[in-house]
Specification:
Chain lengths: 312, 363
């Protein structure tokens, strides 16, 4: 955010931030300084020079809860007085926690190294619904930014679960038809994996070409994920769901899929309203895509394809 | 005076006989190979029904990993998962079944990736048995002649469970012995990581030691995580797989083929596997004879050839490379003929698999 609008006064205020997005200076429409402060690496206020206006965003560009003092970091609240988050990191699983002692404390901020790292929202995430052959990409506010075809056509399937993001590998210099092309590779932990070898990528021209366990998607999907990554809205996790698309009666099991999504998001520490927002968007998309139940029933029993003909 | 036969005619006859004999040889070779395939796949099916009674059949199968992959491509099901979920449940493991599981693990360990494939399924089941009756498990484990190899896989995949169960053992001598071995494995991993850092800087200088490395996947993964920037991006100059690929591709020689084959054997899942198998296919198509000469050193060469088969098929399918041209550029020794026969078979099988997926996706 570069400016804040105050509807009571009808005035704009302009932000100047430091390297991690904390508000250093706020000026009004006339260029007068109305707020100037410096934060220590853990979010405490080191010094305040000017304080005639209380900005909405302060430490790390986050909104502060004026009642209790903690900052809202999207997935959870951070308390600068305690130097820690108020709930455990939703993206850290037991394996990762064991691998790095800095993650043994799931409440720590920036792995206890705020000088070298910063914790941006970290709320982008992707949901792979395997049976539908779809990858849903959400931004930090839980808005569905895109849905793309994706596949895991291999006997080494990506395991079901919520997997923490490890890194982005831009794979520069690759050609379009290469197994991983120049849109790169997003790595996520998996319980049975060396760190970050498994993930999502495009390549090989077609999104359904077999992989060695990764999820393959389109260049467009990778470009969107890369744009989110490069704009600083870092990826947080991947949810992979292998729920059958059809229940035991052969009907489209939308509720089964949505309850899995809800389960994994709740495990990540998201609240009811946020989860509802996400699941509603998936539900709407799947419903529009697959149409009425009788079509689904007919479609499923008359073809082998998990994807309807008009999907893409 | 008798007329001397025409020299040209003599050469012509010789060539006809030669091509006829090589055709018959190849035909017979193909027939024998088909017969062998049928026999081995039948053994795998029979083993599924009653592993105890039919273990001797599986014991005889060389390159079990390769045959399992072929089975999975043909039958479309995960063989080892089916075997373990059907026949090796935790509750019905006695000493005999335990011995069979350990032997299977060692037979499959030609693909030493503990993360996916047969090894992962078997190691997970062993860990479950260990969890259910630790004392019994370790009593029987140390009776295995190669128990240290078995522990190595459990440590790589189920380290926490392993430590927890060793810690709970009543026999303090055994506990000490096992913990000492785990310390050794930990140290080995650290040493291999140090070696890898040097290897990346000067691959040519350190390549001869590559064959002694056990933990390829783990050291590469660790290296990547240690070289991410503040945005968690792995820059190309820090990407070990790209560094190695570039080194291997530039001025190909026998040493580089050796390193490539080691990587093909060890990196069998995820990003690393895909980049390396693609590189393997490219090298094979550009330097077939050099690649095949490297394969000769491996008793389980079919598994390595299988690792590049999808990528070779990709270049035939999309890039319109000609399989005939590739095969013709390979020599005609006995091993070369075997490779050609195997290649034809694998490409045919992959083609069927891709065709099935394509029909499914383009409905």
């Amino acid at each position: 955010m570069v400016a804040e609008y105050q509807p009571q006064t009808g005035k704009y205020y302009y932000y100047t931030t430091d390297q991690i997005g904390s508000t250093r200076i706020l000026t009004d429409y006339a260029g007068n300084m109305v707020y100037a402060a410096a934060h220590d690496p853990y979010g405490g206020v080191q010094q305040t020079w000017v304080n005639v206006f209380n900005p909405e965003l302060k430490f790390s560009g986050k909104e502060q809860d004026t009642e209790s003092g903690p900052y809202y970091f999207g997935a959870r609240y951070y308390d600068p007085a305690l130097y820690r988050f108020l709930s455990p990191d939703p993206g850290i699983n037991a394996q990762l926690g064991m691998a790095n002692p800095q993650f043994w404390n799931l409440y720590s901020y920036c792995g206890n190294n705020p000088v070298n790292f910063f914790d941006k929202e970290g709320r982008s995430f992707v949901i792979f619904i395997a049976r539908a052959g779809l990858l849903f990409i959400f931004d930090e506010n839980g808005n569905l930014r895109g849905v793309y075809p994706a596949s895991n056509t291999t006997s080494k399937k990506y395991p079901e679960g919520r997997w923490r993001y490890t890194h982005y590998n831009p794979h520069e210099g690759a050609q379009r038809g290469d197994p991983i092309d120049d849109t790169g590779f997003f790595g996520f932990y998996a319980p049975s994996d060396e760190p970050g070898s498994m993930g999502i990528h495009a390549g090989r021209y077609v999104w359904w070409w077999p992989t060695a366990g990764c999820i393959r998607t389109t260049r467009e999907a990778m470009e969107l994920m890369r744009n989110l990554h490069e704009s600083g809205d870092k990826m947080r996790f991947l949810i992979a769901i292998w729920e059958d698309m059809f229940d035991s009666n052969g009907f489209f099991d939308l509720s089964g899929i949505l309850s899995k999504v809800e389960f994994y998001l709740r495990g990540a520490g998201y609240g009811r309203r946020y989860i509802e927002k996400v699941t509603r968007q998936i539900e709407t998309y799947l419903w529009q895509l697959f149409g009425p139940l009788d079509f689904m029933y007919d479609y499923w029993f008359n073809s082998e394809s998990p994807i309807p003909p008009n999907a893409f | 005076m008798t007329k001397r036969p025409n020299k040209v005619f003599q050469i012509l006859v010789f060539l006809v006989l030669l091509s006829l004999s090589s055709f018959l040889f190849a035909y017979e070779f193909g027939q024998k190979a088909d017969e062998k395939r049928r026999e081995i796949l039948e053994s795998l099916k029979i083993f599924l029904l009653d592993p105890e009674a039919n273990f001797s059949r599986i014991e005889k199968v060389d390159d079990l990993n390769y045959w399992t992959m072929i089975y999975e491509l043909i039958e479309g099901e995960n063989y080892v998962e089916k075997l373990f979920f059907g026949q090796f449940k935790v509750s019905n493991i006695d000493e005999n079944r335990f011995n069979i599981i350990c032997s299977l693990l060692l037979k499959y360990s030609i693909d030493p990736n503990p993360y996916y494939g047969p090894i992962a399924v078997i190691v997970d089941r062993l860990a479950e048995i260990m969890q259910s009756r630790a004392e019994w498990f370790f009593d029987n484990l140390v009776k295995q002649p190669e128990w240290t190899e078995i522990i190595r896989f459990i440590w790589a995949r189920n380290r926490d469970k392993l430590l927890e169960n060793i810690d709970g053992l009543k026999d303090t001598n055994r506990k000490k012995e096992l913990l000492q071995y785990l310390d050794y494995l930990k140290e080995e991993l650290n040493e291999e990581y140090k070696w890898f850092e040097l290897f990346l800087k000067e691959p040519g200088k350190y390549a001869s030691e590559a064959k002694n490395i056990h933990n390829w996947g783990r050291i590469i993964g660790r290296y990547e995580q240690n070289h991410l920037d503040e945005k968690k991006t792995l820059l190309p100059q820090n990407n070990p797989i790209l560094i190695l690929s570039e080194w291997i591709s530039d001025n190909m020689d026998e040493t580089k083929i050796k390193v490539l084959l080691i990587l093909l054997q060890h990196l069998t899942s995820g990003y690393h596997a895909e980049v390396i198998s693609d590189l393997g296919a490219k090298v094979f198509m550009e330097h077939p004879q050099l690649f095949i000469n490297g394969l000769k050193d491996y008793r389980h060469w079919k598994f390595l050839l299988f690792r590049i088969s999808h990528d070779v098929y990709y270049y035939i399918y999309i890039k319109e490379k000609n399989l005939g041209d590739i095969i013709r550029s390979i020599g005609s020794g006995r091993f070369e003929e075997e490779v050609k026969e195997e290649l034809r078979f694998m490409i045919g099988l992959v083609s069927e698999q891709i065709g099935k997926i394509e029909r499914k996706m383009s409905y």
